[in-house]
Amino acid sequence: MRYLRMLSNSMAAAALGTSYVIALVLLLNPNLPLHPSRFAPLLATVGLYYVVHLTVIFYILLVLRQLFAREVFSPAWISVDVQTWLGAMAAAAGATLMWRNAVTFSLVLDDATANALTKSAVVLAATAVLYLLLALFRRLAPESRMIWGPLCAILLLASVGALLALRGRGVPPLLEARRIDAAFDRTRSGAAGRVVVIAIDGGSLDLITSATA
What does the pLDDT look like over 154-185, one tens digit per residue? Predict the structure, then answer.
């Protein structure tokens, strides 16, 4: 049962870390609407992938703690002590990811997205610090255990909510419609001409030449 409880704690912490990764994907794609039909595939692919892998990582960390602990490590099914430390790790890793993406893609990101990524990195860095402070205060005042669980849940929800607030709802951009102002000469040497307009993003040279042949 001890290892099953460590697994449940690992899954809970993995869900938090995955929520930060999904928030990063949403920040990098600000035009993706938060509609169930568009959001569900993201959860089924990116979400499932990171939940599984982060669960394995956190579980290994808890097993190592069990092996090297001086006393028997037997957490509750959802341990506040475990969640605060793993939550601090997840938030710190999330802040690093946000910052690295903001720096790496600074040349191609618009100002709003770059600003949202920078603010998200600050939010997650502050969240990691608050998780560490919560773990420290819990060690110093174990008799007040009734308040640490709600505070941990509030911190979790507040961090995810802040990331979604920085990102916004997501609205697909409207394509700008305008007239073609260029004038075409429909005749060439007295014969009727033909104009072929191709609008293909990333079309190869062979595709274009075969279409105009």
Answer: 999 999 999 988 876 555 555 555 555 555 45
Q: How far apart are CA 79 and CA 157, in angstroms?
A: 17
pLDDT digits (tens, 9 = 90+) for 58-67: 999 999 888 8
Question: At 191, phi and psi to the nearest 5?
Answer: -105, 155
The two tokens of residue 158 are 């507040």
Residue type, 182: A
**Per-domain boundaries in the chain:** 2-167
C-alpha 38/C-alpha 181 separation (Å) is 37
Tokens 């669960």 correspond to what residue? Answer: 55
Whole-number Å distance between alpha carbons of 93 and 114? 18
Structure tokens at 62: 């808890």
Say how far apart CA 138 and CA 148 lie, in whole Å.
7
Least Cα distance to 78 among 150, 181, 157 occurs for 150
Amino acid type, 183? A
Query: Taking Cα atoms as reference points, which of 68, 123, 56, 61 lies closest to residue 86?
Result: 61
